[in-house]
Amino acid sequence: MTETISVAFIGYKFMGRAHSNAWRQAAAFFDVPYRPVLKVLCGRDVQAARQVADDFGWEEVCGSWEEAVTRPDIDIVDICSPGNTHRDIAIAAAQAGKHVLCEKPLANTLADAKAMWYAAAEANVISMVNFNYRRTPAVALAKQMIANGQIGEIRHWRGTYLQDWIVDPEFPLVWRLQQGIAGSGALGDIGAHSIDLARYLVGEIAAVSALTRTFVKERPLPTAMTGLSATGGQARGPVTVDDAALWLATFDNGAIGTFEATRMATGRRNYNRFEINGSRGSIAFNFERMNELEYFSLDDPPGQQGWRTILATDPLHPYVSAWWPAGHGLGYEHTFTHAVVDFLKGIAAARSPQPDFADGTQTQAVLEAILRSAQSGVWVSVERVG
Ligand code: SOE
Asked: Is the CB of 243 under 6 A from ligand 1?
């Protein structure tokens, strides 16, 4: 690895730290085709951005994304700002010839996602949406096992993504609870991850029947936010997104699925769980135990069958050989590093890694169908965008 590649980064909060760390770690642990140069970090609050820049070694800080994404010395734009900003930044970056990595979900609407995808395709740049959980070694292992036919023909998907960080009705009205900024609530924030995993592991979703609820209708306006913690003031405002979303789904391949996404499931902190049942076996995963994959096989001898837990930390498992010896374990942050590594390899190979903007647009079509079904109370077919 000799060549360098320069990154402009938009955002500086929770995801800002997760991505900054990934840009730092990628070349230190993996044999990547380019060494990333952390050139400029961009944020509206330049002072706050400066702190993150200093912590992670970004060379410069800038208050205008318009300036950052058009700089001739920039090769990659990484977007970690809230959803309502994704479209304009991604399109400007693609039109300036930059490769674009964007946090999930790709956009706040299907129309915006399509515009981003078309701009990236037209400019012939590499694009990728960061649905990071695909890049957990245990999940990538599940993908390999399914592809090898180890659970046979898939019949059921059961996906639940549960958190509890907004259960207190006095938790402030942060941007993730405002439709104009986030697009939707639990649905787009965490349900989108379940949709991505289901599409990755099972296949395309054909139709959905959904319902959503907003349990807490009003919250204090925020005065400050760090990560998922916030403080609020006296004034209050309306919650304009779902607190919880549930939906049934049919898949093109005949499988059926149930999904649940909520940030009000008391005691569940980052419970991104799925169970897949096939004709020869089953696979189950829960991010709260992210180094483990559960597996049941009908091919085991009768009388000895049962769920087993695979500790997905062997150098044989996807991504693991770059890190620590078997059994030493990985964390949330590693999934972001894996995304950056795959993105750099995609640039070298001149092929967008999955999920690219086209794939992210298909997930957006599922989100849109869910919202339409929740509003109308009827099954809605998912638009096929490809
Ligand atoms: C908040 O619910 C959040 O940070 C999501 O926005 C992330 O995508 C998820 O990985 C963890 O939870």
From this structure: no
